[in-house]
């Protein structure tokens, strides 16, 4: 199909997918909030915002579900997630196509995002038989001390437009096997993919049979909907992904009522290209991490420190890649960079580039790209050679801008890498084992993710995902992240006939 014949078809394609996935028409038509495709600018749907009473009702219903779900054995709860994974496998092509239409991701990345959901389902199913606690040494005879992990309650999930479905699934699949229902507020820019996922979940729940109603609900709208979720006393944990500004608003509100927060906020991720780096591999790693998803991942590579000894060999190759990368309709084979989410992103990108120029930066790329007949915002990624780490370099601009700087001493490069407010992801490209180990040592990268010979983006779900400092400190997905969704009880059991007190205290009546 030619591009020309596809223009104007985004709305029709989205409607057909929503119908196939079983999303009732009244959920995505007739509402006051228009949903636009970043691919063509077309209106894809009109969704209904949830009002404050609607959010409260969703939380109360989820809490009722919690009271039943916490009694269901965890491996049986895993069975629901297994069925959900089956629904996702069957719907992968459709759901990914909807991600492309609503978030603008290229086909391969959209499919990767749905695959990430399937992966976390599999992970959570296994986990449902491994929610273990420890048995601990006790100082008292005829006693046993142990810890047990119990379901926590309703989990609020606030997600961003750039991973409109996967981030929810990291939270929801773990929460569900841990015994917690989920109330989801997706980005107001991507409600349709959320409604599609909800429909798939409802199919899985129907097949499961006796699942309580309202284990998963979607509430739609802007900031006030998020606030209603964050402030509700029956939500003991909110997992929020988005900007640092959003986290600054959410974190203290949760702390004020002693609720838990799991924050995944901004990243300003760096990579170091050391003298022994394999330059072919580095070029591919840098290109994907910096230009992939049009620079709109929280793990996107934004700062590159290149050693003096290879700067002049590497930079021309990188510039050539920036000049030749195919920017355009994300539905078309061969496109590597799709649209920005909206014009606001382009404005922020241009502002950052102007500031970089004022600070002495040499900018290559960054101009708008005309995509035949399309109403989306398409831009060539920008490569900016900076004399120093200053101005816009120290903040996250959610757009494809890579700031490149020279370095001569690795410890200084690591210090610069760490000298930003954010601490999500980082990489070093090197074949020198001392450099590699230094980078992942206590005085190396200060980020939650530190990679060797891999770019900072594209993490798999088996590891704990998240970062330090203004990134918020939360960890999601793999390793022991599940503990955030449960409460730990310490139990001491006396199976003797006397009552020895701890610390040798005597209290004889
Ligand atoms: C995000 O951008 O919010 O590591 C999440 C990655 C993906 C997740 C990114 N697995 O890039």
CATH superfamily of the largest domain: Aldehyde Dehydrogenase, Chain A, domain 1
The whole-number mean of residue pLDDT values reads 97
Please give the largest β-sheet: 7 strands, mixed
Give the overall shape.
globular
Tally of separate domains: 2
Number of helices: 15
Domain Aldehyde dehydrogenase: 34-488
Protein name: aldehyde dehydrogenase (NAD(+))
Subunit structure: Homotetramer.
Pfam family, one: Aldedh
Summarize the structure.
This protein is of the alpha/beta class.
How does this structure look, described?
The protein has 509 residues and is α/β, with parallel strands linked by helices. The chain has 2 domains: 274 residues, Aldehyde Dehydrogenase, Chain A, domain 1, CATH 3.40.605; 198 residues, Aldehyde Dehydrogenase, Chain A, domain 2 (3-Layer(aba) Sandwich). It contains 15 helices and 21 strands. The chain has a 7-stranded mixed β-sheet, with helices on both faces. Strands 7-6-5-8-9 form a 5-stranded parallel β-sheet, with helices on both faces. Helix 7 links the parallel strand 5 and strand 6. Helix 5 runs antiparallel to helix 6 and helix 5 packs antiparallel against helix 8. The protein is globular. It starts with a helix and ends in a 15-residue tail after the last strand. The relative contact order is 0.14. The chain binds 2-aminohexanedioic acid. The site of 2-aminohexanedioic acid has 10 residues, from loops. 2-aminohexanedioic acid (UN1) binds next to loops. This is aldehyde dehydrogenase (NAD(+)).
